[in-house]
Amino acid sequence: MYPNLLVKRASLTPNRLAIIFEDQQWTFSQLQQEAIDFAEKLHKLGVNKGMRIAILASSSPQLVTVLHGCMQLGCELVMLNERLTEDELIYQLNDSQSDVLLVDRLDRSLMYGNRISFNQVTGASNKQFQIDAEWPKDRTITIMYTSGTTGKPKGVRQTLENHVMSAMGSALNLGVQPNDCWLCAMPLFHISGFSILMRSVLYGMTVSLHTKFDANKSIEEILNGTVTRMSVVAVTLERLISVLEERNQTFPDTFQSMLVGGGPVPLHYLERAIKCKIPVLQTYGMTETSSQTTTLSSEDAIRKLGSAGKPLFFAEIRISGKKEIGEICIKGPHVTKGYIGAASSKDPQDDGWLHTGDMGYIDDEGYLYVVDRRSDLIISGGENIYPAEVEQAIVKHSAVKEAGVTGIQDEKWGHVPIAFVVLKSEVTEEELKSFMKPQLATYKQPVRYYFIEELPRNASNKILRRKLHEYL
Amino acid sequence: MYPNLLVKRASLTPNRLAIIFEDQQWTFSQLQQEAIDFAEKLHKLGVNKGMRIAILASSSPQLVTVLHGCMQLGCELVMLNERLTEDELIYQLNDSQSDVLLVDRLDRSLMYGNRISFNQVTGASNKQFQIDAEWPKDRTITIMYTSGTTGKPKGVRQTLENHVMSAMGSALNLGVQPNDCWLCAMPLFHISGFSILMRSVLYGMTVSLHTKFDANKSIEEILNGTVTRMSVVAVTLERLISVLEERNQTFPDTFQSMLVGGGPVPLHYLERAIKCKIPVLQTYGMTETSSQTTTLSSEDAIRKLGSAGKPLFFAEIRISGKKEIGEICIKGPHVTKGYIGAASSKDPQDDGWLHTGDMGYIDDEGYLYVVDRRSDLIISGGENIYPAEVEQAIVKHSAVKEAGVTGIQDEKWGHVPIAFVVLKSEVTEEELKSFMKPQLATYKQPVRYYFIEELPRNASNKILRRKLHEYL
Q1: In the A/B pair of chains, how many CB contacts fall below 8 A?
Q2: Nearest of A386, A327, A385, A316 to residue A358 by alpha carbon
Q3: Residues B204, B16: contact at Cβ < 8 Å?
Q4: pTM score, two decimals?
Q5: What is the ipTM of this complex?
Q6: Residue-range domain boundaries for chain A
Q7: What residues in A contact B8, CB-CB < 8 Å?
Q8: What is the predicted pLDDT for the residue at B460?
């Protein structure tokens, strides 16, 4: 058992700031009060302990209250990505058999059996319930969907122990300082954002919440000493650097660490960051590991630039295969115990290790270098795109015989998807694009469709996606 | 499972300083190397994984190597207090059925079946063994003896999980900073000292090791910024304050926290400490909880002076009984799972809580005030003295009918024991003192013997030790 995270934190440091947002702020005590109030109203509306609640909402302080409120009530959170299409969201709602869909605004078009808006909850009366002082370690806190080789999204179960041990391992690497404040401009429905909320209640750390990334606003809070830590992906890091370079400014000593994750980071970004005195620390993490598995430590930031660091205290990695570069495998109390829904029979660590599909090597000193994310993964501005999922959407069109999707480099997003299509009958690129629109989130849409005669395949008839580039 | 603590730490930050001692220093990599070397030699001498090794040694860097070496080999450490008499030590050796007694010097008079000196080990050749990369959470790391109401010392099992969760809870209260260095002048055979070594490998934190407490030397290392944290008991805190007051000096901002534990601390010590800018944080802990259970946080240091703070993140306390002041009960992953030897059938948390016997109350804001340690406990300079144990030694004398022991206040040590004796035949105080000398450690010896007619007892014939003061 672990203590009820928010209640324990509010009892330890009730008056410390939990959240700052524009000119508003909440102490841990206030956050607890609002979260429990929300939970009591939700309970009044028929929501009970053990239920699964899907949440579709933009980042806001209210969302933080809602997430904590649902946790207080003892519910499992299905974190929906607001960039997905309705078709994609409906799949996740059905697969997770969510009891309730909570939406931040009534004008969201997504419909579901039991749909409740934040305002409907806040307008309800209260119904008290027994607040648990302790939570079981294996309680599912969050469920986040991620796709795999098959293209079918899988609901990853993130337990209390996953979140706690992830945060503790990170603390032993980055340290915990009295005035720490973590800027969160990452989506809260992703583990990159949600894990900041978990660290906040465990460490007693302030979160500066931004509804979306804004380079100028972020830099301002860092320069004035409010913010001491921040998480970014390559694209947002580059924007921060560009602004600093333009203004000829550097970061102050009060700023402790800039965690750079969510995919590959060009080495020259890191070099430019160091020149601006941004203490960049590359990290390697994923939904299945409730955030960071390896992270560079500040003392190695410059000497080992380009490496994703060493496994955090409670984590282990190994490279499988006989060659120097092989598949990265992960072990530790932060690794998911399993999936829900259609994927629930899959064991993510059947031999005690999570096989990531990502390729990398460990140097003589034990530092991990991620050479390539799994061959079937395209990372675009920190979002994961699984070619199989896109291909399956394309082939639904009656004119299409088969399709192959891969990523190409993009100045702004790192990579974007493109599609290669073998046709049965005539269809235009425009027709395919409008056919695809309702099926997949915008960031997953191929930017170009190439019509070819045949897809490159190996002996066992698998698409060789890396070979698709030769058709360009 | 947790990672092998020292091996993991040395892999993460090999070049960070682990130990500084006078003008010598060891990095984590060097400490690992020396520990494994010691373990291999010990193995050559027939010591194997799973054996129980009793250690009798003064604090020194070599002792740190020895302790880590034994842990690497997979042995359980029976931590002997060098202030005890031979009779007392023999009891612990027999009760723990230690396989080996390791002594730092051959000229120690304590003899035991398989006795090996540090030099005998370092002179041996090496025999390699399989180093475990992971350690089970419930592995017994240390065994420390503490007495109880019966006066019989009990061997407390401190598991890996106890030590790890204690250190993690402390980190979430005190923080972990990049240049932290903890001054250890507490005995390593006590949990107060040993827990500093555990924090060191978990946090990657430097320990400045002092073989014994020296106020001037401690102050020097604090003033020059080397040391950022320190643990003291009331007596040593007072000496630090006196020196600072004499010199009209205050502590610098680089110093983070002065943990004051091991028994009651006079309020005026704390007030004088604050004037010298010593950030004193009272703590409440014990052998059975592998160090701290509650600790004041720095933001409350002044406002809540006199309180022992709130339970650390993973710990819980409650006051049992119907009145405001009652017995302090403790729960959490840092609480011992049990005893070894004669006491092994006792369950320290039969209802899920450790009943400490200490009296205290929790104020409206949740802060613990320890009103009195268990009625049968005398704390003298941070060492625990159990009256029952002293009484049992006294009544062994043929002239003694019965004896009662209690503590009186002492300017220097806080408290010292005095004895009340009912005689069967003539004996002098001097005779009793020399009779007692070989039986009990010096600090446990009553400073005065009072001969009385009858002991105060309650209806069920139990000695009312608090009433003994009326006979003075």
Answers
A1: 63
A2: A327
A3: yes
A4: 0.90
A5: 0.88
A6: 2-135, 164-372, 378-471
A7: 313
A8: 64
